[in-house]
Amino acid sequence: MERATRSSAAASGAPRRSQRIASRRASAAAAGAAGAAGAAAAGAPPGPAAPRGRKRNGARAARPAAALAKRARADEPRASGLLDLLPLHILDAVLELCTARQLAMLETTCAFFRRGRMLENIAEARLKAVPRAKGMEPNPKAFEKYASLLNFVLAQSAAAAQATAIAFGSSHTAALLISKLDGNTGHHSLYTFGRGFYGQLGHGDYLPQREPKQLCIGYQTSVEQPEMEEEITPAVVACGDEYSTSITRRGQLLTWGLGSRGELGHELPAAGEVPYPMRSLLSTRPAVRIVSVACGSHHTLAISVRAAARAARCGAAPHLTCCRRRRRRRRQELGCVWSCGRNGDGQLGNSTLADAMQLQPVVGINRNHRIVSCAAGVSHSLALASDGSLYTWGSGRYGQLGHVNLQAVHLMVPAQALVLTTPQRIGALDPVMLKPWRRVTSIAAGGHHSCAVTVGGSMLMFGRNKHGQLGMGDNENRWRPTEVTMSATEPSDNFRSVQVVCGLQHTLALIAHFGKIQPFASGAGRVPPAWSRCPGRAAAAAAPAGGRSRRRRAARAGANVFGQLGLGHQVAAARFAPVPKLRDAQVVALQAGNHSSGAVCEDGTVFLWGRNDRGQLGLGGNTGRWAPARLAGFKAVHPDKTLRKSKRTAPRMRPAAPAVPPAASAPNNRIKVLFAKQEAAAVGQGGGKGAAPFVEAAAAEAPRWARWAAAAAVLLAGLAALRCAAWLAGGALAPRGARAPARPAPATRPLHPGSARDHLLLYVFSPTDPEFLENLRFFVSEAVARDTLADHVIIVQTGDDLERVALPELPPHAKYVYHANECYDWGTYGWLLLSSGYVDVARYKFFFFVNSSVRGPFLPAYARGRMHWMSAFTSRLSGSVKLVGSTISCEGSPLHGQQRGRWRRNPHVQSYAVATDRAGLDLLIADRRVFACHRDRWDTIFYSELGSSKAVLDAGFNLGCLMLRYQGVDWRDRANWDCNARLTPTSEYSCDGTSLDPLEVLFVKVKSYMLASDISFSKKATRYQAWQAQSDAWAAAPAGGGRNFSALSRNEYLDQLHRHKAPRVLEARARGAGCFDFDYYAKENPDLRALWGDATGLWRHYVYYGQFAARPHRWTCAVNWTRIAHWPA
Questions:
Q1: Rounded CA gap, 359 and 1048, in Å?
Q2: Which sign, positive or negative, has the C-alpha torsion 73, 78, 80, 86?
Q3: Angle 675-678-684 (CA atoms, 0-180°, nearest 5)?
Q4: Which residues pair with 176 in a beta bridge?
Q5: Nearest partner of 883 among 941, 826, 959, 966, judged by Cα
Q6: Order of strands across the sheet that contains 625-630
Q7: 1103, 1065 in Cβ contact below 8 A?
Q8: CA 277/CA 244 separation, integer angstroms
Q9: How far is CA 907 from CA 379, 680, 958, in A?
Q10: How far apart are CA 260 and CA 624, in angstroms?
Q11: Is the Cβ–Cβ distance between 205 and 199 less than 8 Å?
Q12: Higher pLDDT residue, 307 or 833?
């Protein structure tokens, strides 16, 4: 009925069209007859002459008539090529097979279809079949038709699906690509590239990759063919700052990389790094299938649905109690949101501020709503329900949650932390109060800003706008969802937003403008000229070129320091402006990372641009790109090949491995265990490159207790093998409650090949203070040049904000290694020991860790040259002591620096100079957080400095130090954990009223501000250094007259007498003469008889001379130091 209606409507002008077709056929027949008749046809009478119109005023009247006839012929519908020869029902059937994009192209290129109703009827019928497009109508002001509108609506869904094929982390990228080598087969693979310091690339190592490298996840038993194994096929990828995630076609969630905050969802007490894909615990539930995942900086959100298998089993017996429980559980998990990772700002939505090591349900939105999409920022989260309701939670400091009431709280109490620990619905976007096309259909989260796109294509932005990432033309934060005006010269109805993605400080948008879709961007960059921040200029850049040309554009807004906007420069853009290089590309999806961006075209071509210092663009170098650059040799996989299973997209198959012999207790039990690489390497069996990353049990016809018993037996055998391997390696047994330590990477490029030394010293140098270079020079001259026991590795921290300095020359047993200034000292040690391949840890017996903030080692004159300074540390390392340092402190530290949060108060060896042996190093590696790279100073203190000592104490070992006060103390006894009143001994006078001495602890801190403040131990260190250099010069001079002893007559006390006396003079004057015993002072100092009876003279003598000569004196009243120093209450 509908097709007949369209055909009759299209045939409304049938008489003229049929006459034209008949005349053409008659002309063709006449031409054929003429060719057959030969000369006879040449004498045939001509056809009837065309009637001529009456002349009006001669030739002048003929011109308007000709113009009218030409205009009439132009207005006449006309098909292209041979389409006019097709019957209408065949043409209608062909159009039914066209996609929405093809219909839109026909509408814009063919006058016949543009002026007729055939395409409009087909597009209108398809648009009404889309539920979320209910009530949408074309915009006649923008010359929009149903075909263009249908193309826009379907492009929104296509962009959301295609964007899951590529993901950016802070310095790495993961993508589902088809290599040119697999172009014929159509098989896609997961490729990762960029920084691999934490194993976020998933290749089992920690090496960087500047080009895409294929990641083989592994194989699993095929459901359709149990005798075969199919390759685990990734369907969706997402990345956090330093970790990666992927969803397989079966709905399993795999995670790998840095999991120090629990973002991997593995429920490990000390997660550390996982350098290969591992299945999350939630994915081990057979009835839960993950369909979507979103990654913030350090937290993960996942959406799950209930698998159909268990529901089918319960369908046969719904009266059973277990099935009733399953039905209740299914209602809770249908479209359920899960979260794990960091929760310092409530971004997990579990009504607490505690981190979660495994995926847990989000509180409040899983019971009554079906969640279809989620997004995660640095410290906030968003979730979109199927009815268009938008929920937000986490930190709302900049308005990124979209709740207006938080702005009122911020205005009244600016210092108040705006945190929502449970999801709250944004009232302004309540779907009940909005028309269907005004409801939210997609969401995105940036660093501290958020975006929502409506069905009709409106872009709503809210949150932080310091860098112009909201595209509003200013830098004011938005506390409520605010619609973005794309151009100041055109109506907003001319622009429809297809997709919006948010980076850390920039935003990309796919905009439909007059029917054509093109990428836009917005944000701030380097400080631009005054005119580039002008709203008029920004609006002009966003305005379309060509007026009514039907085009789809990509826009950008936000930070542009690394060229992540793709504009070809680093100038700010506070309004959305088109990406020039992608103006003519058929872009279908965009993706944004912290400082990188990407676009996927219709043919699968991938463009990348932005920051590339770690090779995260995969272009083979480390040069950033300010404009989109094509990823050669690869194409992005189409969502139909990842989300839909067909013969063409079937995974690779291989025969199943032979089954393990059945256990004696369960003769019918067949167990197949695919060991992870880490466990296989720990027991010395190695691990293949394509080994499966998780343990899978496939049992057939066996009771549950038998399967549990067999699994327990395998687990106990593995633990026994691990302990045996640790014992054979010469280390202590695995510590209580700790996992088996990760084996350090083999020395693929050793710094000291063939060395017989059994001591290894790692020294971290960072040129952030002028005195640090002097500390390094003294260490090289005093410790490295004279050393015969240790191999030295000096790690030089590098970065754009660090100046380059002239480093001292090193002897052959010492090497310089350069590393980016991204981690603190412990993370840098971990990089060198565990993943760099520079050292072979198994060769060494003792390990020393020193940083450039301290100066040393200092030895007394009678010991210098007669004993090795390292023996002061190694002599204290014994069977019970596994960690020794210069000092020990009992000062605690809070996690993340939050005073009301979690604290660690255990005594700890202060990390500026630390020594341990092989067994102690195994304990530190086993903790996994000690050598992790923590970006926050408080986390480094909590997990590394205090965590290293805690790992040793928890394993039953003791700590040691060089301080005389703490010799023989058993730090395992908690009664000693209040040492020094919980004050650090490295402050002035804080060590029981005294300051440290360099000759006591060998190393003391020396920094510029310490010398400027006359900190006593820092000043002593500089004096000791000068005296040692002076003594060495005298010893090296010839015994004759080459020695210069003029420096012996110098005394800084006399040179700066007033400066040294001033503090004690001020103290005496503050106490006052009223409390001074003049009689006692005169009696005990008989040489002052001339001043007897002169109180003023005696007082002046004591204040300026007597107290510095240690003359006997006495005070007659107590001292109120608080009043004297004017100390605040």
A1: 70
A2: negative
A3: 85
A4: 190
A5: 959
A6: 587-592, 596-601, 606-610, 625-630
A7: yes
A8: 9
A9: 32, 36, 10
A10: 29
A11: yes
A12: 833
- What gap in Å lies between CA 759 and CA 844, rounded to an integer? 6
* Other residues' Cβ atoms within 10 Å of the Cβ of residue 575: 28
| Residues 611 and 564: beta-carbon distance below 8 Å | yes
DSSP string, 205-257: S---EEEEEEE---EEE-SS-TTEEEEPPEEEEEE-SSEEEEEETTS-EEEEE
Cβ partners under 8 Å of residue 163, min gap 6: 499, 501, 589, 590, 591, 600
- Exposure on the CB side of residue 437, measured as CA atoms within 13 A: 19
Which two tokens mark 907?
Answer: 């005594």
Q: How does 372-381 read in b/e, with b if 16+ C-beta sit within 10 Å?
A: bbbbbbbbbb
State residue 865 phi and psi, 5-degree precision: 90, -10
Pairwise CA distance, residues 1096 & 1073, whole Å? 9
End-to-end CA distance of the chain: 90
How many whole angstroms separate alpha carbon 451 and alpha carbon 272? 33
What is the number of residues in the chain? 1129
Q: How is residue 67 written in tokens?
A: 């113009």
Strand partners, 77: none
Q: Is 1063 exposed, middle or buried (0-12, 13-18, 19+ CB in 10 A)?
A: exposed
In the chain, what's the furthest Cα-to-Cα distance?
Answer: 160
Determine the residue type at 547: G
Which of 802, 797, 834 is closest to 819 using CA atoms?
797
Number of Cβ within 10 Å of residue 1089's Cβ equals 9
Q: CA 952 to CA 969: how far, in whole Å?
A: 15
Which token pair is 322?
A: 């277990």
- Write down the pLDDT at residue 589: 92
Residue 660 CB neighbours (<10 A): 13
Strand partners, 765: 796
pLDDT at 1026: 86
**Bigger pLDDT: 321 vs 163:** 163
| Positive or negative: CA dihedral 859, 862, 865, 869 | negative
Q: Are 1053 and 1060 in contact (CB under 8 A)?
A: yes
Neighbours of 887 (CB within 10 A): 23
What is the per-residue pLDDT across 65-96, written as a single tens digit (0 to 9) for each?
Answer: 555 454 444 444 444 555 666 677 777 777 77
Per-residue three-class SS string for 1011-1061: HHCCCHHHHHHHHHHHHHHHHHHHHHCCCCCCCCCHHHHCCHHHHCHHHHH
| DSSP secondary structure letter of residue 895 | G
Please give the torsion angle defined by the CA atoms of residues 205, 210, 211 and 216, in that order, rounded to the nearest 10 degrees: 10
Write phi, then psi, for 234 (nearest 5 degrees).
Answer: -75, 140
Of 134 and 5, the structure prediction assigns the larger pLDDT to 134
Q: Where are the alpha helices (DSSP H) in 1050-1120?
A: 1052-1055, 1057-1071, 1078-1084, 1095-1104
Structural contact between residues 179 and 189, judged by C-beta atoms closer than 8 angstroms: yes
* C-alpha distance from residue 85 to each of 14, 20, 23, 78 (Å): 13, 11, 13, 12
This prediction's pTM: 0.55
Structure tokens, 476: 């004011």
Range picked from 24-28, 191-195, 646-650, 863-867 for highest mean pLDDT = 191-195
CA 370 vs. chain centroid, Å, equals 28
3-state secondary structure of 336: strand
Sequence-distant (6+) residues with CB within 8 A of 1048 are none
**792 by DSSP, 3-state: which?**
strand
Task: Report how far apart, in Å, the C-alpha atoms of 603 and of each of 173, 585, 634, 1124 are.
Answer: 21, 10, 11, 80
